[in-house]
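Data deposition worksheet. Section B asks for the primary sequence of the deposited chain exactly as it was used as input, without tags or linkers unless they were present during the calculation. Section C holds the resulting structure in token form. Section D is free text for depositor observations; keep each observation to a single sentence. Incomplete worksheets are returned to the depositor.
Section A, Depositor: J.P.
Section B:
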Amino acid sequence: MIRSMTGYGKKDGTSQKAGVTVEIRSVNHRFLEVAVRLPRSLAQLEDQVRKTVQQRCLRGRVDVSVSVHSAGGSLKTVQIDQALAKQYHTALKKLQKTLGLRGAVDVSTLAGFRDILSVSDEPVDAGQLTKTVLRVLGGALTDLEKMRRREGEALAKDLVLHLDAIREAKSTVAEKAPVLAKNAFERMKGRIESLLQAELPDPARLQQELAVFADRSDISEELVRLESHMLQFDQQLHSKESVGKTLEFLLQEMGREVNTIGSKANDADIAALVVRMKAELEKLREQVQNVE
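Section C:
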């Protein structure tokens, strides 16, 4: 079954004290475009993440966001430079005594000096974190694929409805087609006789020319090709491969046949049916833009 290019997937995982969240969003795009956002500490994984996505998505704009956060513990540690704190304390007490200042040199005073207190990242096993990120990425991609398949099933049902509408109109045209050439022949013959108002010159040659003209009004070949394209379109809807571009091509060919039918068949009823088929083709084109 076809897949939509629109989808969303999200997964969480843990690695020691680190929590990992991967979010993936995809929308329609002519080709496959993958955008990856990673924490600076995981920048080296960008190519690997992109290749993993490319193995499972064939078309669409895919945005991957990876975040690392605390999982129950803390990824930060506070460090205190006690020796420096003692020097600050001694210097401040001396200054207080020298200037005769009131107050106390307490912890809150010392905490205001940034070089006494510092916060740093707690070391994390890089190899383990990498495995976790890739594992969680795989889960998010699975969720994305499930949603794209569900959207694809809905798309397929809608496409079939529009295809059936075209097939119904085409069947009505096919019922009228056999008499088109005959009517064109008789209509043109009547016009010529009316213009000449006399015995026709070289009747055999005239009959031959009228037959050629009538043959140009024959739309049987176009109807056969249109039906062939519709059958192929229907078959592609059940494919597991990426068929979006194939469906776009088939719609282009179907449009070509419908236009030819409209130009060759000089008939008001068929002209109305052609307009209906063109409207359904346009709806198909809009929907196919979302097919992977």
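Section D:
The first helix runs from residue 46 to 56.
The two ends are 11 Å apart (CA to CA).
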